[in-house]
Write a structure and sequence with these properties.
Helices cover 41% and strands 23% of the residues. By secondary structure, the chain is of the alpha/beta class. A 7-stranded mixed sheet has the order 3-2-1-4-5-7-6, with helices on both faces. The radius of gyration is 16 Å and the shape is globular.
């Protein structure tokens, strides 16, 4: 009863405040705690449909904002969108052409759930790895990265992989996540490019 009431409250609040989904409050919570997006940042949101995170991002920065998803996104004023697969390694030059410097990458992408926990966690992990690869290809040194993951047997290895590329890595269970969900967010700050990491060895 309590979790259902929370869900209803979040949904009603999102509709009242003009957000496209209750997921907006997850990014609001992350931003309030970790301040990952600054007023001048250029930001890319991966798996962006229906666009609630893009709405939050647009309100946080005067920089350029780009959303990427396999599905078209209903237009948002001041936001560019691409219908594309962010796991495509040929996408990064197009992103740089649109934004130039990329300061922050966010991803709330999740697979359509099958109900089979281990299978769904593996598919989610694959999306997270694709988002990390994208971030490593386009982020400027010192940039920030937020990605959704689901805790499972391979989560620790993925978290360590993120730590290999960022100086500060934290995890957060959002208050808006459904009760009992294994959903968790990785907040990574201060990206270190491969070249920088090699020079420091």
């Amino acid at each position: 009863m309590g979790s259902q009431w929370t869900k209803d409250n979040s949904y009603v609040r999102a509709m009242r405040e003009g957000y496209r989904s209750r997921a907006a409050y997850k990014l609001v919570e992350i931003q309030d705690r970790y301040h990952i997006i600054r007023e001048s940042d250029n930001v890319v949101d991966l798996g962006a449909a229906p666009g609630s995170w893009l709405q939050v991002i647009r309100g946080l920065t005067r920089g350029k904002v780009l959303g990427i998803d396999l599905s078209p996104i209903v237009p948002i004023e001041g936001v560019e969108t691409l219908v594309a697969d962010f796991s495509d390694p040929t996408l990064s030059p197009q992103v740089h052409a649109l934004l130039g410097i990329v300061n922050v990458i966010t991803s709330d992408a999740a697979p359509k759930l099958s109900g089979q926990k281990s299978y769904d966690q593996a598919r989610s992990l694959a999306l997270g790895e694709a988002a990390l690869s994208f971030a490593c290809a386009v982020l400027k040194p010192g940039g920030n990265f937020v990605v959704k993951a689901f805790q499972g047997e391979d989560f620790s290895a993925f978290l360590q992989e993120v730590r290999n590329h960022f100086l500060s890595v934290r995890t957060l269970r959002s208050r808006t996540s459904r009760k009992g969900s294994s959903e968790i967010y990785i907040i990574a700050r201060n990206f270190v490019s491969t070249n920088e990491a090699e020079r420091s060895l």
